[in-house]
Amino acid sequence: MVWSTTSAMWEYCTMTSISPHISSSFRLGALELPNRLAQAPMAGISTRAFRLQARRHGAGLCCTEMVSSYGLHYNNRRTAAMLELTPAEQPVAVQLFGNHPDIMAEAAAAAGAAGAAVVDINMGCPVRKVVKTGAGVALMDEPELAERIVAAAVATASRPVTVKIRSGTRSQSADSFAKRMAAAGAAAVCIHPRLAVQGRKGKADHEVTAGLAAALEVPVIASGDIDSAASAAAVMGRTGCAAVMVGRACLGNPWLFGDILAGEGSGGRPLGETLAEMEHFYHDLEGEMGEERAVRFMRKFYGWYLARFRPGEALRDGLRRADGFAEALGLISAWAGARDEGSDAVPE
User: Fold this and answer.
1) Burial class (CB in 10 A: 0-12, 13-18, 19+), 206
2) How many domains does the chain have?
């Protein structure tokens, strides 16, 4: 069936499809996941502390940031540390990137041995330093090589192997490419339906997602613009995908996972609850990477946590310079106190 417009497809799917509830379980190969809501892999973000937070708030599958297959091959200490998984974050997927079947097979075996419940292969990253190595979305222009990589990983992982793709590099090629990945053994395909040349610009075209869900026999996981219970339900209902994945929308708002599962709006939380969550996250970070790195890492998160409270430039600048988490909390508390005494109360 050819859709004359995206809105026509949405209307048809809304009237005719019956989708499973997002809180219901589903299977990836032999693995049963507790619900249909996943936390997206995000470079420089999806640390163990971040995954623990997502899991604590309801994500049915957590995912590491991209792990270099070559880094594992050459025993890079920092890369190897990315495979240090804990029971509390399970089920967790380890996302690998690379361009050589043998080295990717070796990395998949290492991820399985480290306790990954799923091995995910990144074939969607459009960042230049990844693409120029022939990895990430560059593999969508090399489908035969991509097939060999998937088959090699499936042979060694002893876990379900999934593939994360985009709509294509410069034009839509997801349908034919995804079919080849499934034929090579992928247990599921995760689609971010934007072209590589778009980056994060524009709207995710979930008509592409609907096409994949109709064409593939393996589950399709939808990513892109999933930022509320309403958008998650709409994408599942209108595309027939098996699950959805939340990325940047959960930064500073981990409650989004629970709100999506409950079908509720997500307006954030009061400042006191936000600060308690921030503190929990910081202590998990400190346990993972030590105080010095945790303090630096937190600097990019303060703005996300506090965005709805509209902090002024003075506070934002102070948080960027804070030498420790206690100092940062002190700055936020002083700012909140000053706001409470003025005419502009801190939003609850």
Assistant:
1) buried
2) 2
